[in-house]
Amino acid sequence: MNGIEQPGFNTRLWRRFLAMAAPYWRSDERWRARGMLALLIVLLLGQTGFNVLFNHETGEFTSALAARDAERFWASIWRCLALLSAAVPIYGLYYFVRDTLGLRWRRWLTEDFLQRYFGRRAYYRLNTITGIDNPDQRIAEDINAFTQQSLYFSMILLGAVLQLSAFAGVLWSISRTLVYFLLGYAVFSTLFTAGVFGRQLIGLNFRQLQREADFRFNLVRVREHAEPIAFHRGEAREMSTLQRVFAAIYANYQQVLRWQFKLNLFQYAHSFLTTVLPSVIVAQQVLEGELEVGRAIQAAGAFAAILSALTVVVEHFESLSRFSAGIDRLHGFAKALAAPDADDAQQIRRQDGFTLELQQLNLYTPGHEHLLLRDLSLGVAPGAGLLIVGASGAGKSSLLRAIAGLWTSGSGLVRRPAGHDMLFLPQHPYLPLGDLRSQLLYPQLSQDTSDAELQQWLERVNLGDLAQRFGGLDAVQDWAKLLSVGEQQRLAFARALLAKPRYLLLDEATSALDADNEARLYAQLQGLSITAISVSHHAALLQYHQQVLELQGQGAWQLRPAAGYRWPSL
Ligand SMILES: Nc1ncnc2c1ncn2[C@@H]1O[C@H](COP(=O)(O)OP(=O)(O)OP(=O)(O)O)[C@@H](O)[C@H]1O
């Protein structure tokens, strides 16, 4: 359950709902939102008013028929038609306003969540550290369901209250016995439903959402890693994983169905009584001539309206339980996004500076489980490139993560050039969706670089024919699938050259290249006065750096001049 308590219907759920819902109604859009809500309430009042009038007319023309009074009958039918023509636009407009407001709320909340997701690099933290499941589903679907259903249920509840007040008077004037009976019946059925079905269905729906998301996540992984899976002939293994995940969906949904079945039995028995009971209770009065038949019909209509208002929770219980499960998921996500920063005493400090400098750096893995580097101090002056070497798992990439500010567990100081003066090139380049131009300019959204210049940068990394091969700089392709790993590394390198940072951190960024291409790229760095800080297993790169940092495991390290350095036999 990812540390989230078993959900249920209670005040905690109500508080969570308010915490998720309130910010929109206090936001910049509040006046428009409140205005639309007010309009929605007015339309709902209109609907209820029309319901009462229709109910009255139904009683009226039934009584006219019973009395064989043609004039009274037709007068009532004309009134019905007039009512209808006024009511139709109100009903139509009600749904339009409700759903438009829902859409605007979704836009606002999605924007709000995206801000928090990208702010303080939460998307990275959640992915690598806390491991909250499927944030994508929470942003794409849970927010949508939350905004729509919040309005849907609020309006249903409000409608129930209005309906109750509107019809209570009608019924009271016809039969008090019916009113007393109704109240007892509604209280009993609501308590019974919440008590018996509540906990079960909310918990089951919570798990259902989670399992559906896991299933989709596993399918996406297969798509993303199709090639390695195909090389491994891993179909049977993948299929069995997916079957296992789907079996969990199936088993959980079976339980949902069992509980829904029991709930439905209760709901049908409950609503069936609605059709019979009012007639039974007022029958005697009609038979004795105290009450017109039409009034009895009107009483039955009012009875049904009040009962559905009073038992609104019973009627919508299934969808309410799904809604509650969604609130819990969204709340858990919001909480993870807002996770407080770790204690400063256990954090590496960061300062902006002209050169790169590390002072007494102690670096741990994110949860402080392992010490990776102990008391590391060094400086990298412009032009004095640093090569980081060491056995696999010694902490080379982790050191780059600490310099980039992604990992902060530990102590000491990282002083580094700010912003675009320092860039990072990973081993597996990120090639975003888009055209070739945007691969070169990423992460800039737009930049005034001419096509001719972009072409020159491609030539510098030996990709001169790339644009022509794939339809020009504007060609939109799935570049990560189309290009070889070495081509991807060169394309990412061209991007870094174009950005001309003063320092470039390369984490095995040329690992897939032949010696000639690698040498060609590193020579470009020197030509542009870009200082390289590289992690590599290639001894040939020594000549492009002035110093070597050797990580020896268990936090130990040594700093040596590159000239005369003997490559360790790892
Ligand atoms: N998110 C994480 N949480 C906990 N430990 C991690 C995490 N990421 C990496 N580690 C551990 O930190 C250690 C150092 O990893 P790192 O990737 O820095 O090694 P490396 O020297 O770059 O290895 P290689 O040469 O194989 O790329 C490894 O033991 C790894 O298992």
TrEMBL record:
<dbReference type="GO" id="GO:0005524">
    <property type="term" value="F:ATP binding"/>
</dbReference>
<keyword id="KW-1133">Transmembrane helix</keyword>
<dbReference type="Pfam" id="PF00005">
    <property type="entry name" value="ABC_tran"/>
</dbReference>
<feature type="transmembrane region" description="Helical">
    <location>
        <begin position="151"/>
        <end position="172"/>
    </location>
</feature>
<keyword id="KW-0067">ATP-binding</keyword>
<dbReference type="InterPro" id="IPR036640">
    <property type="entry name" value="ABC1_TM_sf"/>
</dbReference>
<feature type="transmembrane region" description="Helical">
    <location>
        <begin position="36"/>
        <end position="54"/>
    </location>
</feature>
<dbReference type="InterPro" id="IPR003439">
    <property type="entry name" value="ABC_transporter-like_ATP-bd"/>
</dbReference>
<dbReference type="InterPro" id="IPR017871">
    <property type="entry name" value="ABC_transporter-like_CS"/>
</dbReference>
<feature type="domain" description="ABC transporter">
    <location>
        <begin position="358"/>
        <end position="569"/>
    </location>
</feature>
<dbReference type="InterPro" id="IPR027417">
    <property type="entry name" value="P-loop_NTPase"/>
</dbReference>
<dbReference type="GO" id="GO:0140359">
    <property type="term" value="F:ABC-type transporter activity"/>
</dbReference>
<keyword id="KW-0547">Nucleotide-binding</keyword>
<keyword id="KW-0813">Transport</keyword>
<keyword id="KW-0472">Membrane</keyword>
<keyword id="KW-1003">Cell membrane</keyword>
<keyword id="KW-0812">Transmembrane</keyword>
<feature type="domain" description="ABC transmembrane type-1">
    <location>
        <begin position="38"/>
        <end position="322"/>
    </location>
</feature>
<protein>
    <submittedName>
        <fullName>ABC transporter ATP-binding protein/permease</fullName>
    </submittedName>
</protein>
<dbReference type="InterPro" id="IPR011527">
    <property type="entry name" value="ABC1_TM_dom"/>
</dbReference>
<dbReference type="GO" id="GO:0005886">
    <property type="term" value="C:plasma membrane"/>
</dbReference>
<dbReference type="GO" id="GO:0016887">
    <property type="term" value="F:ATP hydrolysis activity"/>
</dbReference>
<dbReference type="Pfam" id="PF06472">
    <property type="entry name" value="ABC_membrane_2"/>
</dbReference>
<dbReference type="InterPro" id="IPR050835">
    <property type="entry name" value="ABC_transporter_sub-D"/>
</dbReference>
<feature type="transmembrane region" description="Helical">
    <location>
        <begin position="74"/>
        <end position="97"/>
    </location>
</feature>
<feature type="transmembrane region" description="Helical">
    <location>
        <begin position="178"/>
        <end position="198"/>
    </location>
</feature>
<dbReference type="InterPro" id="IPR003593">
    <property type="entry name" value="AAA+_ATPase"/>
</dbReference>
